[in-house]
């Protein structure tokens, strides 16, 4: 009976007594000096997977290819850091800053950017995210102004009310993404895939969607004044109430599109394919 009880007591030992388990209460947050020490030590350890780096100032550090999978990166400052090819899957970035950081070809899939009940947005302004994997990520209200997301995967991502002004999404995959009420002024979506994306009431003045794929996209109430939609595929897209005054539509395909109450220049109608489009007002 005593042997059995001792076995039970061992099973019930607190997680802190087990080297391979994390005790949230006792988990010490790594500092900048801790990170630098490990990165520069002999046989450098470039894995911080599952570790706690909350609040660390890692600005300007060379972190190329470092593994931060599942790490606690809340309130970490990565401004101007090199995180190219880093593994950030499943990490918690609530309150983190990435101003002008290099995240080219980084994997950010399933990362969490917002703390429960928090309205604080992540700052990725001017960040380099070329080719990054942001599949299904939650970036509502994020600041991505002037960010470089060329060729990035943002399929099914949530960019609701995000600031994407002057950002580059050339060749990016945003199919099925939620961009409702986002700011897209001056942004570049040339050759991007926005099929079935939700761009309801987006502000797109001066944005470029040249040769973009926007089939069945929702652009209800979108502000597309002076936007470049040349060669874009808008087949069966919903542009009800959209403002397209001054937009370039040369070679655009709007066949089967919904244009009820849309504002469209007459010359633009001559440049685009409106076959099968309905509720086109004169």
What does this structure look like?
The N and C termini lie far apart (90 Å). The longest helix is centred in the first third of the chain and has 10 residues, at 2-11. The protein is mostly loops and 282 residues long. It is 9% helix and 0% strand. The chain has three helices and no strands. The protein has two domains: 1-121, no CATH class; 129-282, 3 Solenoid (Pectate Lyase C-like), CATH 2.160.20.80. It is elongated, with a radius of gyration of 24 Å.
Please report which band the strand proportion falls in: under 5%, 5-15%, 15-25%, 25-35%, 35-45% or over 45%: under 5%
Instruction: State the name of the first-level CATH class of the largest domain.
Output: Mainly Beta
Number of helices: 3
Q: Identify low-pLDDT runs.
A: 3-26
Q: CATH homologous superfamily name of the largest domain?
A: E3 ubiquitin-protein ligase SopA
What structural class do the secondary elements suggest?
Answer: little secondary structure
Helix content: under 10%
Overall shape: it is: elongated
Order of helices and strands: HHH
The number of distinct structural domains comes to 2
Corresponding CATH architecture of the largest domain: 3 Solenoid
Radius of gyration: 24 Å
The number of strands is: 0
The CATH topology assignment of the largest domain is: Pectate Lyase C-like
- Main beta sheet: none
């Amino acid at each position: 009976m005593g042997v059995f009880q001792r076995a039970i007591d061992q099973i019930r030992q607190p997680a802190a007594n087990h080297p391979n388990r994390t005790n949230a209460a006792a988990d010490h947050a790594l500092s900048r000096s801790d990170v630098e020490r490990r990165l520069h030590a002999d046989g450098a350890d470039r894995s911080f997977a599952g570790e706690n780096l909350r609040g660390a100032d890692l600005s300007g550090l060379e972190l190329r290819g470092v593994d931060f999978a599942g790490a606690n990166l809340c309130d970490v400052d990565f401004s101007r850091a090199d995180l190219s090819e880093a593994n950030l899957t499943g990490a918690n970035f609530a309150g983190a800053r990435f101003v002008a950081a290099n995240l080219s070809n980084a994997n950010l899939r399933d990362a969490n950017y917002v703390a429960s009940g928090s309205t604080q947005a992540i700052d990725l302004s001017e960040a380099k995210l070329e080719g990054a994997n942001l599949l299904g990520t939650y970036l509502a209200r994020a600041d991505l102004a002037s960010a470089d997301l060329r060729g990035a995967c943002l399929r099914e991502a949530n960019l609701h009310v995000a600031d994407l002004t002057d950002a580059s999404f050339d060749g990016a995959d945003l199919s099925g993404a939620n961009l409702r009420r986002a700011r897209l002024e001056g942004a570049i979506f040339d050759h991007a895939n926005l099929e079935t994306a939700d761009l309801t009431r987006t502000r797109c003045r001066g944005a470029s969607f040249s040769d973009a794929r926007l089939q069945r996209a929702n652009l209800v109430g979108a502000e597309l004044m002076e936007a470049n939609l040349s060669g874009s595929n808008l087949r069966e897209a919903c542009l009800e109430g959209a403002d397209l005054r001054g937009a370039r539509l040369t070679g655009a395909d709007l066949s089967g599109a919904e244009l009820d109450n849309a504002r469209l220049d007459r010359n633009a109608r001559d440049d685009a394919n409106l076959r099968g489009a309905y509720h086109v007002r004169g």
